[in-house]
Design goal:
InterPro entries: AB_hydrolase_fold, FrsA_esterase, Peptidase_S9_cat. The protein is α/β, with parallel strands linked by helices. The chain contains eight helices and nine strands. It folds into two domains: 225 residues, 3-Layer(aba) Sandwich (Rossmann fold), CATH 3.40.50.1820; 37 residues, no CATH class. Helix 1 links the parallel strand 4 and strand 5. The protein starts with 6 loop residues before the first strand and ends with a helix. The mean pLDDT is 98.
Length: 280
């Protein structure tokens, strides 16, 4: 929140695919001195088109390939007339390395999403409507969207999160890293203290602490049978937004799990209607 964030030099590289509805490009952009890779789907037809930045969930960087998250959403949203910029994040695919990112609770991913929006805005590309930009995040990427909304209020026009992680990083650390015996936990706590030793730090890195800063509408989509990210996390976050008087809606899907299967089309209809209201 104290930093000046920069995102520039959006460059379209090779064409990865062409469909009747859109063209898929490899892209790079610059974020605070780092090069970040990703993909961008550009709809066919006459723009400018509203744009969406997609923040993917956790995928092991050793197996991740560029544009590797949310393929269904990338395709559908482009077919519906959105420029889709899917960031790889730093330390993934063709992006530059940031050796401190894991110890710093992957906050660099938040910088990468902020930078993606700023790079879209400054690109000068005629197909992008810089006055209509939204965010969509899944799982870990949902937490990145929460962070972005409190770090850079007013940056975008609306946000959607699917099956998001907790808005309290200490809960995510316990569930996904401590439980799996991830050695980075010891490094994180050596650098920042445990939640018991240094509660002030852990409160300050929780986006839910700063919901009063948020200015954009948010929809949270979560399945009742999600055994990866408990629905209780989204209920708590939505309640905090509501208490702060923010525009938030929690939509639950009975029996749906973390990855969204049978109810995915329903969830995307909700998503598209929401973005149409705020970006249309």
């Amino acid at each position: 929140m104290a930093r000046e964030h920069r995102g520039t030099d959006l460059r379209l590289g090779s064409v990865l695919a062409r469909t009747a509805a859109y063209t898929r490009y490899a892209v790079t952009y610059e974020v605070n001195g780092l090069t970040v890779s990703g993909i961008m789907n550009v709809p066919e037809g006459e723009g400018p088109f509203p744009a969406l930045v997609l923040a993917h969930g956790y995928i092991d960087p050793t197996v991740y390939t560029t544009g590797g998250g949310m393929p269904r959403e990338q395709d559908l949203l482009a077919r519906e007339g959105y420029v889709v910029l899917h960031t790889d994040y730093r330390n993934h695919a063709g992006s530059d390395d940031d050796p401190d990112n894991d110890v710093n609770l992957r906050l660099g991913s938040t910088e990468d999403v902020i930078g993606a929006v700023l790079a879209l805005r400054s690109s000068g590309r005629p197909e992008i409507d810089v006055d209509r930009i939204g965010l969509l995040g899944r799982s870990m990427g949902g937490g990145v969207v929460y962070n972005t909304m409190v770090v850079a209020p007013g940056l975008v026009d609306a946000a959607v999160v699917f099956a998001p992680v907790s808005s309290r990083p200490a809960e995510n650390l316990d569930r996904f890293q401590r439980r799996e015996g991830d050695p980075i936990v010891a490094e994180i706590e050596a650098a920042h203290g445990t939640p018991e030793e240094n509660p002030e730090f852990w409160e300050q890195v929780s986006p839910v602490t700063y919901v009063d800063r948020v200015t954009e509408p948010l929809v949270i989509l979560h399945g009742t049978a999600d055994d990866t990210c408990p629905l209780a996390w989204s209920r708590e976050t939505a309640a905090a937004f509501e208490k702060a008087g923010k525009d938030v809606e929690l939509v639950t899907y009975d029996g749906e799990g973390h990855t969204f299967g049978p109810r995915w089309p329903d969830s995307m209809r909700t998503t598209l209607a929401f973005f149409e209201r705020h970006l249309g």
